[in-house]
């Protein structure tokens, strides 16, 4: 056990009157700090350094106690609220504007049947903007969750970029009616879905301790990680068949019918999701 974090917390509370509310706040902080230190140590940070970093991230304890004492009542949400970082907000706004501009350009280029190169560039910029926004958002700490690791956040960003690039390629096919566009749309979209499924199936809990104390997991994925893994495999299978069906119907029956394969896959995917998220709902209704 890392005893350093307990010593640092006691030093931070030195000089503060020990009231029942202050003790409750201190123990809540202790739980958060212990969880944060464990998370840092798991990522390779030395125990002493992890304790120092966790206590520094906490901020000025005297200010927190004073702010908490003025709150009536002091809700856990407000007590643990995390403000967005200004740099993140600026990055998100700038990249979002760039992505919207690229998307508008893509729609115009497809509508006017512009050269392939311009459509490809607009698709690439739109996909990269979406991927950056997703990855950057997951790297931010929130009131309820710790930030995602860089590698996993990058994985989500790549998956989002691939799916967006696949959708853009599909738009290019509608404009040019060239088979390579259709192949690119199916391949990129499928790759993105596979990465999303893998990340979802291997995702560990990011909730902070104060959130976990208030939550009672009610879905199948929280209670049974194996269900999450199976759902990831089902997702890949469903969308692989859907994309293959989309391609076959596009070639044989035309665009007017091919999109029905995606609609059917979406409906089946949602049914599987509902069934696996709440596997005990029928039993509870029957009183089993």
Note down, in words, how this protein is organized.
This protein is mainly α and 288 residues long. The chain has 2 domains: 4-79; 86-286, no CATH class. It is 78% helix and 0% strand. It has 14 helices and no strands. It has helices spanning 4-12, 20-42, 47-58, 61-70, 76-79, 86-112, 116-138, 150-176, 179-201, 209-214, 220-223, 225-252, 255-277, 281-286. Helix 6 (86-112) runs parallel beside helix 8, helix 9 packs antiparallel against helix 12 and helix 12 (225-252) runs antiparallel to helix 13 (255-277). The longest helix has 28 residues, at 225-252. It is elongated. Mean pLDDT is 81; it is low at 281-288.
